Structure formats: structure tokens, C-alpha cells
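Bug report

Summary: C-alpha cells for No hits differ between web form and batch submission.
Environment: batch mode, default settings.
Steps: 1) Submit the sequence below via batch. 2) Compare with the web form result.

Sequence submitted:
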Amino acid sequence: MRSLLLLILISSWINAVNLLVKKESYTTNESITVDVSLMSDDKQNWIGVYPVGSSNAWENVVSWTWTDGKGIKLSEITLPKTSKVGTYEVRAFFKNSFKVEGKSNTFTVKAVVAGKTELQTVNYYITGSCSGSASVSFRNMGNNSNDWIGLYPIGSSNAWRNVVGWSWIKNMVNGRISVPFSKNIVPGEYEFRAFFNNSFSVEGKSNPLLVTSCSDKIEVRHKIEYANNEPVKVKFRDDSNKKKNWIGIYKSGKRTLAENNLAWKWTDDKKEGEVVFDNLPAGEYDVRFFLNNSYTIEKVSSFVVKPKVTYEFPKGVLNGDNNPTEGVYVKYYKNKAYISVADTSVFAKKHKGITLVDYSDKENPNILAYNPNHSWGRFSKSVEFTENEDKLVFISDEWSIVSLTANNLVLFNSFGIGYANYQPTLYKVDGHNLFYTVHSWAEQPKYRYYYVNAAGEITQVALLGSGGSDYDFLIDGGTIGEDKYYQTHQIRNLNTGGWKKEKEIYDISNLPEVVLLETIVFDVEP
């Protein structure tokens, strides 16, 4: 009798629906993902989130979804986010019933520790009628379907009549968007404001956005970069036929207020001329051109005053010379330092390249090897070792990935990576000779993956690459066990405006030949 009862229990257990919640803890703004198998194919099967210990009554359901025939074989199903904090489990039901067919492991839902909503303009000044749009990055938006960002004149109220441009931010927390506005926008000072749930209650504001005229009647010319204590010479051409025009110097990004004006000079109503500004400390500055003794900006351009170079680096590293902080990059590993001198260093002519220094005796460092032909640091400070720890991999001055033997700095291979919109960075996947670069836009980055074999040859792993855009960008990636790598993309449906996530799992046990194992697609907001 006991054996028969045990067989019945085993049979019951084998035929139960299998449910496995992916994480032990979620926040109230996260959807819940669960692996489901052994469901039937009935379209009215469903799964629901219940508080642990509660009955199967409908009033206890805190989140649910139809399975739509999924889950016969192993499937990933996403449940809507749960707004209540607590300890939960997922239960499976057949044919729109309340007879439970299986339960998941327990998990918790915690409150979101919400950060302050942050907005940052991509460019802090634009020419209004020439562009017709301005880009803004955002963090900690509400992840609601009707959040929005509006462009307002600084000092105006949040009333709709003051909006000069706007865009929905649907079901997103962090990202970047281009906000369109009328091409007859009035030059002046503006700011982006963030709002949740289609309201006019402001959640955050951006830095000032300076919108200038698109007229070609004013032209200013100057150097982009000045040395410390070098006079800043600004040449101008003025065809405006206006009087009392003037040029001011401002810290970059600051509002055009009298108290922010660092220095200024009249143009003396000249058609062409030059003004000179002295004694500007190190920093980033704007040249701003104004008409009619006003504070309405006609033109903006930027320059940098470089700081005075300081000389601080360990004695004896480069043939006895002291080294500047600027332009010198160091990778320490096992009592050794791989020191790269980029072409921005004052020692570039003599020491540009990579020097290997033995620091076992810190008082008397010993130079072991030197390669003058390559350095990292001009575009990226990233440098990593391969899995075998006998090769260096880094991004060179020529926008290429370079591999060197670590101990004697002999070049093995160089692989071109092309142009990037911002400084690329090199990362290593732990446990593999798999590296990737991140470039394109910071908010929707483009990833490229590379493999370094035993001979030091670099190969791009094309299957793992991902392109960054407003409608398809990588949001997550990493290793699964020892031989698999996953990527999760967030993809916009251009027809509906909604979002979905696509997760792909790859076999990386035998690089560089990567085999796609599985693709899972699920909605961000079911």
C-alpha cells in the first residue's frame, strides 16, 4: 500500500506544470520572468502571481497573463510588474479555472529606491531654425506609458501654451531621445522638463539649452585649444548692420546672465575685427556674440584653456626622466607596470609607445622592454590581458585593436575597428579570450566582439555584435556557466511604438565560431 501511494505521488509530481521564476527578488517597476513547461496547449491556460500562503481566489491575484498555448515545451513567459511589496509565487491554471496545476519557487518584490529624475542635453547650444530638434538624455523616468519630456523657455510656467517641443517617453527609465520643435523657434534659453503620467507636475529639469539664430550674418573664428596663459584671440565678421554689438566670454553651459559674464568687449560697430582676452584660467569656455547691447545670443562657439602641466611620476621609469600625469597611462600586473605614453604627453617625441617596467624593487624600477610603435591612451585608457595572461590587448591611437606579447612587447596583430561617435572602451569577458568594445552613442551603445587566439591573431566575432540605435540597442549581456554568453536587446515596434525584449544565447566554448543556441522574445509591457 505504501509503495502504491509513493507511485501515485511520483506520478502526480511528474505531471505537474513546472514553473521557475528567474530571480529571487524583483522591484516594483520590473516585469517578472518565469520558465514554464508541461502546460497543455489550451488558449485559456493562465499563470498568476499570488502572495505565498493565500488562496487561489481571484482577489488574491496581483499579476497575471494568458499563456496562449505556450509552455508545452520550455518557454519563458513574462508577467506584468507587481506594484505591491511582498513575498510571492507563480501558479499555473488550465482552461480559465482556479484549480492550481503547479507552483513556482518563491520570490520577493521590493520597493524601488527611486533616484531623482535627471535630464542632460546632448549639446548645450544649437542653431534653432537650422536644426528643428534637440537631443536629451534621461535617467530615472517613471517607466509609464504616458511619461513625456517637454522643451520650455527658462522661467516659464509648466502650462501647455509654453511648450515649444515635446515627445512621449513610453515605458522607459533611462535613454536618449530627439525632441522636435518648430523651426521658427525664438532664439533664447530653454530647458527640458520631465513629467510622469501625462501630468504637468515637473519631475526634473535639464541644464540650460542655448538656442541661437541660424543667420549667417555673424561669424566668429578662434582656436579650439589654448595653452595656459595664452591670449585668446577672437576674430569676427559682422554683416548685421546693428549697433552696440559685443562679445562675451562665459563658462561653457552657463546661462547668459550678467553675473556669469567673465569678460566682454565691444565690437565698435566694425564689419571685421579682432578682440583679445587675457588671463583666463584653465577650463572650458564659450565665445558668445550679442546684438544691440542685449543678452540675446546670436552666435556661440567653444574653446578650452589647458591647465599647466604638472610633473609627477615614479623616479627612473623612463630613462631617468620625470613624467607628466597627462598623456601617461599605466596597467599594473604582478609587480610590473605597462606604461603607455600617448602623443599628448610632453615626452611623446622621445618615449611615445609602451614601456614595461619591473617594480619588484620599488626604489629602483627596472625597464624590461620598450615598443615605440604603439600606445594606448589617446582615445582609450582601456587595456586588458588575454585569458592566458601573456598578451596585452588595447585600443591603439589608430582606432584599431592591438595585441602584444606581455613580457617583451612584440606586436602580434592589429585589427581595425573604424570610427566611433565617442571614445571606444575595451572590456574582457571573464574566463575567455573574448573582448568587446563599446562605442556609438552612450545611451544606445554599439558593441563589437573580438577573440584573440594562441597565435595572437584578433578576429571579430560578427554574430555577437550589436548595433546601437533608438529602436534596437543592447541592455544586458554576460556569461551563463562556462560556455554560454547571452545578450538582451530592447527593440521598438515602429508600428505601435511599444517595446519588446529579445534574448539570445550563444555557445562560446569554441571561439571564434559562435553558434546561436536560442532566441527568446518577450514584451516589456505585456
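Above is the batch result. After comparison, the two runs are identical; trailing whitespace caused the diff. The first strand starts at residue 18 and ends at 21. The chain has four domains: 2-110, 118-212, 218-305, 376-523.
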